[in-house]
Amino acid sequence: MEQVIARYAGQIRSAAADKKPLRLRGGGTKDFYGQGLEGELLDTRAYTGIVAYEPTELVITARCGTPLAELEAVLRAEGQQLAFEPPHFGAGATVGGMVAAGLSGPRRQAAGAVRDFVLVVRMLDGRGDDLSFGGQVMKNVAGYDVSRPMAGSLGTLGLILEVSLKVPPLPFAEATLKLELPQDKALAMLNHWGGKPLPISACAWTGGELVLRLSGAPSAIEAARAAIGGEPIAAEQATAYWRGIREHTDPFFSTDKPLWRMSVPSVAPPLEFPGEQLIEWGGSLRWLACKADARSIREAAAQAGGHGTLFRAADKSAGVFTPLQPALAKIHRNLKQAFDPAGIFNPGRMYSDL
Amino acid sequence: MNESFRLLDPLRQTAAVKALRAILPSDAVLYQREDTKPYECDGLSAYRELPMVVALPQNEDEVSRVLRACRQLKLPVVARGAGTGLSGGALPHAKGVLLSLAKMNRILALDPVARIARVQPGVRNLAISDAAAPYGLYYAPDPSSQIACSIGGNVAENSGGVHCLKYGLTVHNVLRVRACTIEGELVEFGNEALDAPGLDLLALVMGSEGMLAVATEITVKLVPKPQTARVILAAFDDVEKAGNAAAAVIAAGIIPAGLEMMDQPATRAVEEYVHAGYDLDAAALLLCESDGTAEEVEDEIARMTAVLKDSGAYDFRISQNEAERLKFWSGRKAAFPAMGRISPDYYCMDGTIPRKRLGEVLRFIAAMEKKYGLRCPNVFHAGDGNLHPLILFDANDPEQLRRTEAFAGEVLEKSIAVGGTVTGEHGVGIEKINQMCLQFTPDELEMFRAVKRAFDTDELLNPDKNIPTLHRCAEFGRMHVEGGQLPHPELPRF
């Protein structure tokens, strides 16, 4: 495997010398996400396999090209999980791509995001230097935390070689409930329940129907069921339903309209736009299938105290991500310069000047 | 630090005072020795330095203007919260400005429905939970100094606490940090919505020890208070057995709300102080807490008890009520002051290790006790591998201080050798800066410096902390030749 790293480092050094962009790519399941794809392909799948797994330490370390499905199967066999339920968006999803995309699934509201579980990142920077940041332990404050910001960096800072992740246990039990509620009532209830010690691990509201998943000790689930009410959904059907929400195979996502991912405070009132909406994460995430112009959508997001991402669309000319304030953009450019001085890693994938 | 560096430059001081007085009222600019003396150290009192000037801004605008002025005059700036830090992160700079955020201590907003609080950096950690209590909410990270420490300091250190295995560190519980760069520009890291656009700089500034920007406003998450909590106090006749028991609890799919261990010397010291009723014959005590609904806790306590029994605990006590729970915890929580009672001084270490290496590390510490002739009781966040050995010494004896530092250095290096880190929650500061040379390669250290310059081009924010220069590593390496091998043979030697 060390030869693979040497090969990657060589490819990076020659690309840097020629100032030719590289397109870092695993299974390509998230090619749709972000701005443009540019550069010569660097396929991360050659560097594959699980490096170390210590269930009692709650830590797994895997190479970037490891199939995400393989990682999750290994964890499941030990009764553990990636608690942030990352979407695969296809059979070929890899561990490196999962971290670089930084996308979390339904359980994020209760468990946290990808970055919350990243402990170590080993990477090649734009000079081809092999660097490791973070620690294989739950708590580490030595040096700056360079590992977590790799989550969601879309490969703009370097080639992620290996990641160590915190892997908590699977819940002892789960149950799914369905309630009929209009959007405003659903948002009010989600925020109300959010302030109570209830084991809600996922929610999805669309078309007047709120589906809730409870995870934890059987007794806690029973108590929560009694407090919340609603109609139970059979286990098999529930599993399929949550897979659909996580993997965007639910009918809601098979839209031909642009799909916006609106990140707003959970208490933000319903967003007034034509088109369909699906709400997750206790009200903090609102998927919007909508043809309205990008500016008005971003303005509405900003007004609500959040931001909108053009998640899936044929036309991305309006920009996928919300532009950064100038002082923040400057820090981004400086960091890019520090990690990737020749500007070769996935240029323009996040912002045109990054 | 050599003496010539310590000498005050009166012209420089006059210029700094003049510039700061143009921004702040005169009582918010301190420069007389008797006024600056209280700021000479933080919780790591073995290191002291008088700041040239202390500035006490009251609001964000003043912070911004002070920083701009400091940049113009090329003055180093050390931000300080409550000064409870244990690694010298807030140790002043003799030729710089000590920026105290203590006056910025207001809770600006608390929204019980959205479950967030927007606070100024000088707000005390516990004050947030107190303000949230009427709504059944609290701020989860609970460092042991939570009565006194400030949220700004918590952000700078990415503080943990006894409940962080289940509830996370500061980085997991802060949504947004509004901060001022050395250029005086306001930036927002994170967002009150989730997943802010761009790189996750919020994660990067967490634990950055005031070296990237100065936090002026922080939005924290509030979480529902668990209905109830109970704790098991389990006794073991062997420390390794206790360590394995902690691993077994986690292997059983349980994430305890708290999982703490004390060895016998620690237990004996605290028992004398708090009378918690600990078993003084036990080689180690394990505190294992469950929280949640009453039903949940009952289930979990039964599961935990079964695992601890199988792991060889010879005695158990399960708290029957809140008073008893607090009593069981009282010794662990009072571990530091209890050491202060049996020794003039104690030196607290903070290495984090893979839990499975606990026995080996404890044996190593026992050997170091003999080597240096100093006692060292251990308290341990067993759930997350964070070890706090407490070396007992007398700081008035320079020889003992020297031995203590050498002892601590060896333990930190052992933490690295077993795959851990020199600091789990106290920060590097000035204290562990040499060991950073061992934990990271020169390329990695260079990248840290480049990250700093991305925020702070002139390297004025808390300089000479946390990240050692390669020069310093070379100097340290010269003193630290192991097995005839210098740690960084590729570096030039000075």
Care to describe what's here?
The complex is a heterodimer of chains A (354) and B (494). Chain A is globular. With 354 residues, chain A is of the alpha+beta class. Chain A folds into two domains: 2-169 and 332-339, 2-Layer Sandwich (Uridine Diphospho-n-acetylenolpyruvylglucosamine Reductase, domain 3); 173-312. Chain A has a five-stranded antiparallel β-sheet with strand order 3-4-7-5-6. Chain A has a four-stranded antiparallel β-sheet with strand order 9-10-8-11. Chain A is built from ten helices and 15 strands. Chain B is α+β, with helices and mostly antiparallel strands. Chain B has five domains: 3-100, Uridine Diphospho-n-acetylenolpyruvylglucosamine Reductase, domain 2 (2-Layer Sandwich), CATH 3.30.43; 107-224, Uridine Diphospho-n-acetylenolpyruvylglucosamine Reductase, domain 3, CATH 3.30.465; 228-336, 2-Layer Sandwich (Alpha-Beta Plaits); 343-431, Alpha-Beta Plaits, CATH 3.30.70; 434-479, no CATH class. Chain B is 38% helix and 18% strand. In chain B, the strands form four sheets. Chain B has a seven-stranded antiparallel β-sheet with strand order 15-12-14-13-17-18-16. In chain B, β17 and β18 form a beta hairpin. Residues 1-5 and 481-494 of chain B have low confidence and may be disordered. Chains A and B meet through β6, α6, α7 and α10 of A and β9, α9, α10, α12 and α18 of B.
Write the layout of secondary structure elements.
The complex is a heterodimer of chains A (354) and B (494).
Chain A: H1 2-18, E1 22-25, E2 40-43, E3 50-54, E4 59-63, H2 68-77, H3 95-101, H4 108-111, H5 114-117, E5 118-124, E6 130-134, E7 159-166, E8 173-180, H6 183-194, E9 200-206, E10 209-216, H7 218-228, E11 231-233, H8 235-247, E12 259-263, E13 276-280, E14 285-289, H9 294-303, E15 307-312, H10 326-339
Parallel strand pairs in A: 1-2
Antiparallel strand pairs in A: 3-4, 4-7, 5-6, 5-7, 8-10, 8-11, 9-10, 12-14, 12-15, 13-14
Chain B: H1 3-6, H2 10-21, E1 29-30, H3 33-36, E2 53-55, H4 60-72, E3 77-80, E4 97-100, E5 107-111, E6 116-119, H5 125-132, E7 137-138, H6 151-157, H7 164-167, H8 170-173, E8 174-180, E9 186-190, H9 201-205, E10 214-221, E11 223-224, E12 228-236, H10 239-251, E13 258-263, H11 264-274, E14 284-292, H12 294-310, E15 315-318, H13 322-333, H14 335-342, E16 345-348, H15 358-372, E17 378-381, E18 386-393, H16 398-417, H17 433-439, H18 442-455, H19 470-479
Parallel strand pairs in B: 2-4, 3-4
Antiparallel strand pairs in B: 1-2, 5-6, 6-10, 7-11, 8-9, 8-10, 12-14, 12-15, 13-14, 13-17, 16-18, 17-18
Helix pairs in contact in B: 10-12, 11-14, 15-16
